[in-house]
Amino acid sequence: MVSKIGIHVEDVSKLFVTGSRRKQAVNSVSYEIARGEVFGILGANGAGKTTLIKLMSTQLAPDSGRIIIDGFNTVTDQRALRARINIVEGGDKGLYPWLTGYENLRLFALLYRIPISDIRAKIEVALSRVDLAKDAWHAPTMTYSKGMKQRVLLAKGLLNDPSVLFLDEPTIGLDFDAVQRIRDIVKELSRAGTTVILTSHNASDIDNTCHRVALLAEGQDRGLFAIEELRAQYRSRVNFQLSKGEAPDRFAALDPGLSLTNGANRITVAMTLDQKGIAALYGLFAQSPDAVDEISVEGASLEDFYGTFIKGETA
Amino acid sequence: MRWLFELAWLFIRLNTRRTMMVFVGLVQPLFTVWLYALNQPPALSLPEGFWFILVNAGLVNSWTILVFSALSEVDRDRWTGLLGQYLSMPTPLIEIMTIRTLANFLFVCISLAVTALLAFFVIRPEAGMLLSPVWGWLLLAMLAITLIAVLFSMVVAMTLRGRVIMNFIDYPVVFVSALGFSATLFPDIMARFALCLPQGFLAEMARFTAGISPVSPAELVWWPTPVLTGFGLVCLAATLLRLMQRRLLTRGTLA
Full-prediction pTM beyond 0.90? Predict the structure, then answer.
């Protein structure tokens, strides 16, 4: 029977020593990641996200603990494992500027040991999938924009049909369309059964694509959350106008910290509620629909949650 | 085999797309032969001249491949994260680096072959004269040294400390490569300019001290030339800075 768990990260630690400086980049981190899952790793700069990706993608060996991907150990089964994974790093580097986009991918395809007879088709499919304009395929990448380079790098990540794709800050510095395309591709890959590990310090990337998110701070695991569960906990700001004469006290049961501002004819009510609270509030509105006006809901997001988390860490 | 050929070809393409490498690989051999034809060293016989050109061109090529291709490219790969990506690919890093080394070495050999062909058509030595064992061994030794140097530079460029060590090796290599070719072989104005450059002057001084050249650079250089050259460079730099400043003020960018 094939295990549903694609990646086991078991009590992994990594210490960097440079002269007298010691940096515990990853400290006793454990995760189990399902096949086809989009798993986000969220953390500030220096939190250990990239080190964790490097440990999982065989670029680094852990000091302790072990990582098993599709049954292969990242230290003892490197060669077999490397054919099944791919990594895309964010930014506009990682390509040879004197070679064309097509030649860069041909070089990578050869290094990934893709059969030579398949390389041309694989490159064409990958470049089409990332929407790189065809007339740019045979231009040196030094003439590309940042977004075009990132598309080629993403195409490189698709070349060997990996079962696990690591995306390290893939949307950094990209415009909205390019970010949206990358998010769409991640979702397509997940539907096709590819496990995607995504690191970002942009919470909306994680919010829009991941099934679960791990929070890292100073190399330590600070919690693992299902995005759907987190969304249910997000608290939104709700504002509405209430006719004078209506008792605002009944709303206080939902949010004791609500604020009331008296106007000439109306009272402005501001509340902070989770999804259940909002549903209950609309229930109250339904009881006296004519008394309520100008309802606005400012939805909270993972970014707000992450901001709260960071504040808690630094407090 | 096809995999190996295609990979090596792409690594060679990395060289041929760079202006510096095109200059070294193609223009520089032509230039070397042209300089020889202009100023044939009187102490050299024709076949010796043939090998003299080849070895000198080889020295410059070796150095350029060492510094501009092997070393700077691997160093660049380290900074851009490509080296890290190589570590996550199924082809082992040692295989990638070996193929890349051989590709760079092949580039040196192609350039030397072009030089030899040009030198042959200019000098037209008799076939028997080319079989001089001394020059032949020297050429072989030079190729072997190039191969070792390229490999060594690739390995040490992978670490920060190694890069520092290579900086101490680069400059002596540049200096030694200049020892084989006297600046006096250049046309007069170029010779003066070459001798005004610190590297050219020191190389000529070393040639004189070692007894390779009978003439000291002090006798070759008109002393105000370095001063005037220095002054000219300062003026040029100042003019460029003013232009940059004006462009920044008017356009807000240097692009």
Answer: no
